[in-house]
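Methods — Computational structure assignment.
A single polypeptide chain was analysed. Its primary sequence is given first, followed by the predicted tertiary structure written as structure tokens.
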Amino acid sequence: MKYTKMAACAVAGALLIGLLGCSGERAAEKEVLRPVRYTTASETDPKVERRFSGLTRSGSVVRLSFRKGGEVASIRVFVGDRVKKGELVATLDDKDAQLNLDKARAALNKSRIQSENARSSLARVKSLYENNNVSLSEYEKARDTFANALATYQADERSYRLQERELAYYKLTSPIDGIITSRKVEANENVSSGAEVAVVQAGDSIEVEAGIPEVWISKVHEGQRVKLSYPSIEGETFEGRVTEVAFESDSQTHTYPVTLVMEGGSSDIRPGMPASVTFDFGRDLPKETLRVPVSAMAKDYDGHYLFVLERSPEKGVGVVKKRRVKAGGMNSGGFDVTEGLSAGEKVVTAGLQFLSDGMRVKVLAE
């Protein structure tokens, strides 16, 4: 009886071990596949527009000042006045300068008469000398007298021209067509040479300065066409072009200042207005550029890579292949891929850190 019980226990143990062994084999045979989602690589839209903020300023600003110091006799403009090129803005008291010019004119007339008399005298003495009626010394004396008189006349003429030119310094005119934006002096005030009297800004020349991030600055170049719009002018856009691209970034905004000039501006646009600058970078993209979501792109020490999904014969199962690609710029639509990927290929968009080359995965809907 004792042996029978022992035999029964042995048989039961063997059966239990056998059952456990079968269960372990079935567990080993069951493969757990990681689910992935994918998207299809598509060609980029050739129109890649990016919008940046800018600030309007006058294309030409001139700070007017006198070249001579003195008392302001009159100032003929007010803030907001439109002026033409050459229009009189202000004048200085020029009484002393006018007296000096009159003196220089009188001296010039006197020396001119003396020079003409000396010329006539030289011609007469020369004729007598050639006929042996006067000595050589008399002829040389007449010649020297004329030379001195001519030199005096030429010096007085230069002095007169200088005084005449200096008199023009007492009048201040606008060098451009524009608008007076500032007036710093009043009549009867004394001003020094170079002191700012008024500021005139070109009314028809409008510039916009925009800050471009480093990811896009390499695509901005002089002469590039842009579109400009203003929040205060709804439904209207203006043409512009890049005139200057800064080489160094701004220390405060960490963007690169780019200057643009507006073509065909509006009288409603004034310096200081915020502007929106739209660049089209699509023309700079290679023709065969593809775009993938940001989540599909990964990077290591060797560069950028993607996991390309290949279907397997089993339904709902795929194989991922790690592939090196050349990535272009990043934008709101994702990464631009210029090399290593073909249109229509499927790339994994999530869980890249858990994947490895050649790994079997469960394919979810796109």
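Note: Residues 1-11, 23-28 have pLDDT under 50 and may be disordered.
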